[in-house]
From TrEMBL:
Its main location: membrane. Residues 36-199 form the 3-deoxy-D-manno-octulosonic-acid transferase N-terminal domain. Its EC number is 2.4.99.12. GO terms for biological process: lipid A biosynthetic process; lipopolysaccharide core region biosynthetic process. It comes from Candidatus Sulfurimonas baltica. Keywords: Cell membrane, Glycosyltransferase, Lipopolysaccharide biosynthesis, Membrane, Transferase, Transmembrane, Transmembrane helix. It is an enzyme of class 2 (transferase). It catalyses: lipid IVA (E. coli) + CMP-3-deoxy-beta-D-manno-octulosonate = alpha-Kdo-(2->6)-lipid IVA (E. coli) + CMP + H(+). InterPro entries: Glycos_transf_N (IPR007507), Glycos_transf_N_sf (IPR038107), Kdotransferase (IPR039901). Involved in lipopolysaccharide (LPS) biosynthesis. Catalyzes the transfer of 3-deoxy-D-manno-octulosonate (Kdo) residue(s) from CMP-Kdo to lipid IV(A), the tetraacyldisaccharide-1,4'-bisphosphate precursor of lipid A. The gene is waaA. This is 3-deoxy-D-manno-octulosonic acid transferase. Pathway: Bacterial outer membrane biogenesis; LPS core biosynthesis.
Length: 388
């Protein structure tokens, strides 16, 4: 190992030792009971079986979905995928690929096998991953690469570090010209702007549900605190007309707590409430979707989509392409910094503060459905991945 790499490795071991009690404690939490033991203790997380394949590293659900059109074009190749989150892992297992959790950095020198190419999505910048794979002879490609406006200052303060990390990268496929300039400032070379690969994804519904005979509002991919904002607005909104509210939380471990919150509002306002898992007839005034993989099916029968993840500062928004594809009128918050590039391609979106959701619902009556434009060409990416 080079001196800096050795120092980084030693620091990663020291940090692991300090964090070990917390890691053990969190491993018993429902949210982390699979991912943390796999990543930090290599539990049920063996090395890949073969060498010389194409290794995609993604973080979570959105990135795992985003590589689907690329994997279709690489159908005959030996594909490996690593993820960080459990939801990403579940999605990745749907592909014809070897799927693992990405181990903590100190394990990578011993765990990682040489692959022909490593394709890393978005902002998954792991120093040991890049260094080890490059040392083993892999070509490294950054795909859908981005640096958010919110994170730029932090990256620039550590520009010397990211210059070292990015020196291992063969090519950076950036989402936008703005991202390209930010990568240049960090010392990256060979950068091409191709747009956001999520635009290439096929958006489909997997089931057909009958649309209720009234206006349907879906609050999709919501996070803690956002459901209450939506519920307050909804109970005001239905004073002026009939409508149903369907809530689809982003994380399944929150299903029960969200249901209890909805029950408080249902009892207070004399509204009917049901769990989607119990009845899929969508007859109640309010419905909690407590099953994974249903959001597109719900978008397909909805008139208005309140897109979560952007009403507070800590998430950065969620993908607007799906509700736009199904013709929903989109309302979202103003903190969509991780999805800024995607929102450029979606028209007729209302960006509001939490206390403005009720007014936005009323405004929807005079707005056309949100619409999507723009396509992306994946051919240069596939050609680069398949280079010898």
């Amino acid at each position: 190992m080079k001196p800096f790499t050795l120092l980084y490795f030693i620091l990663s071991v020291a940090l692991y030792a300090v964090a070990l009690p917390l890691l053990i404690y969190l491993s018993f939490k429902q949210k982390y009971k699979e991912s943390l033991p796999s990543r930090f203790f290599l539990f049920n997380n063996p090395r890949f079986n073969n060498r010389d394949g194409i290794w995609f590293h993604v973080c979570s659900l959105g990135e795992a979905r985003a590589i689907k059109p690329i994997l279709k074009l690489l159908d005959d190749c030996d594909i490996k995928i690593t993820t960080i989150t459990h939801t990403g892992q579940v999605e990745a297992r749907k592909y014809n690929a070897e799927v693992r959790y990405l181990p903590y950095e100190m394990f990578l020198p011993f765990w990682a096998k040489r692959q022909r190419v490593l394709v890393v999505l978005e902002a998954e910048f792991w120093f040991m991953l890049f260094t080890v794979l490059k040392a083993k002879g892999a070509r490294i490609v950054l795909l859908n690469a981005r640096i958010s406006e919110k994170s730029t200052k932090k990256y620039l303060q550590m520009a010397w570090f990211y210059k070292k990390l990015l020196s291992h990268v063969e090519i950076v496929y950036a989402q936008s010209e703005v991202d390209k300039n930010r990568f240049i400032a960090l010392g990256a070379k060979n950068i091409e702007v191709i747009g956001n690969i999520k635009l290439a994804g096929e958006i489909v519904k997997t089931k057909e549900y009958k649309k209720p005979n009234c206006e349907v509002i879906v609050a999709g991919s919501t996070h803690d605190g956002e459901e209450e904002m939506v519920l307050k607005s909804f109970v005001e909104y239905i004073k002026q007309g009939e409508a149903k509210l369907i809530i689809v939380p982003r994380h399944p471990e929150r299903f029960d707590s969200v249901y209890e919150l909805m029950k408080v509002y249902a009892d207070r306002c004399d509204l009917s409430l049901e769990r989607f898992s119990k009845s899929k007839e969508l007859k109640a005034d309010m419905i909690l979707v407590d099953e994974m993989g249903e959001l597109n099916n719900i978008y397909a029968i909805s008139d208005i989509a309140i897109l979560g993840g952007a009403f507070k500062e800590d998430v950065g928004g969620h993908n607007p392409l799906e509700p736009a594809h199904f013709g929903c009128k989109i309302i979202t918050g103003k903190h969509f910094f991780h999805q800024k590039e995607l929102f450029k391609y979606v028209h007729h979106v209302q960006y509001v503060e939490p206390q403005e959701i009720h007014r936005a619902l009323l405004t929807c009556r005079s707005l056309p459905p949100s619409m999507l434009e723009q396509e992306i060409n994946l051919e240069p990416v596939i050609k680069k991945i398949l280079e010898d």
